[in-house]
Amino acid sequence: MRKRFVLAAMGLLVVGQVGAADRVELTTRVSGVVAEVLVKSGQRVDAGRVLLRLDPTILQARLDEAAAEQARAEADAADAARELTRARELYERTVSSTTELDAAVLRDTRAGAALAAARARHAVAKKNLADAELKAPFAGVVQAVPGQPGTVVSADCQPKTLVILGSGRL
């Protein structure tokens, strides 16, 4: 009896059967268009070998945008921290009110939260760009390559099989 399994590892979405088939169907974890296929049917591959790549243009642009957003959030957080320090000093000298101090605390808190969110978006964008390369999760033999340059992959729907990898038998 065969059991279905889904395994997410190394930035891959692996869907396959455990049992006599001894093979897995591989696809990327991100949406995109296949730019290049680096293997052929019957080819032996080592674990970690790049099998195909998606066009990185959009993913790189998203990473660049996230990096810029993070830089802006870092500057805003530094500015808010300076403003809070100044507001505390003025409050301690009884030059400013509690309202002004509270406003500085609020701005600092919001800037910190915005920075945390920007860092998270940057990390996701970086991971998505890395996931544009489909790598072999184990050493084996490429059994089929249904994905070709120009193939559109949508991670939001049922993933399209791009490479079928077996443990060593054709």
Tags for this model:
OB fold (Dihydrolipoamide Acetyltransferase, E2P); Helix Hairpins; 10 strands; alpha+beta
Report on the architecture of this protein:
- It is a single chain.
- It contains two helices and ten strands.
- It has 170 residues and is α+β, with helices and mostly antiparallel strands.
- It folds into two domains: 3-55 and 132-166, RNA polymerase II/Efflux pump adaptor protein, barrel-sandwich hybrid domain (OB fold (Dihydrolipoamide Acetyltransferase, E2P)), CATH 2.40.50; 58-129, Helix Hairpins (Orthogonal Bundle), CATH 1.10.287.
- It has a six-stranded antiparallel sheet with strand order 1-2-3-10-8-5, with no helix packed on it. Strands 7-6-4-9 form a four-stranded antiparallel sheet, with no helix packed on it.
- A hairpin with a 2-residue loop joins strand 1 (3-9) and strand 2.
How are the elements arranged and paired?
Elements (H helix, E strand, L loop, with lengths): L2 E7 L2 E7 L4 E6 L3 E6 L6 E2 L4 E5 L2 H36 L5 H33 L2 E3 L4 E5 L7 E2 L9 E4 L4
Antiparallel strand pairs: 1-2, 2-3, 3-10, 4-6, 4-9, 5-8, 6-7, 8-10
Q: Would you tell me which CATH topology of the largest domain applies?
A: OB fold (Dihydrolipoamide Acetyltransferase, E2P)
How would you classify the helix and strand content by structural class?
alpha+beta
Assign the CATH architecture of the largest domain: Beta Barrel
Work out the helicity level: 40-55%
Compute the average pLDDT. 87
Uncertain regions spanning at least 5 consecutive residues? 1-20
**Main beta sheet, described?**
6 strands, antiparallel
Rg over alpha carbons: 24 Å
CATH class designation of the largest domain: Mainly Beta
How many structural domains does the protein architecture include? 2
Can you identify the CATH superfamily of the largest domain? RNA polymerase II/Efflux pump adaptor protein, barrel-sandwich hybrid domain
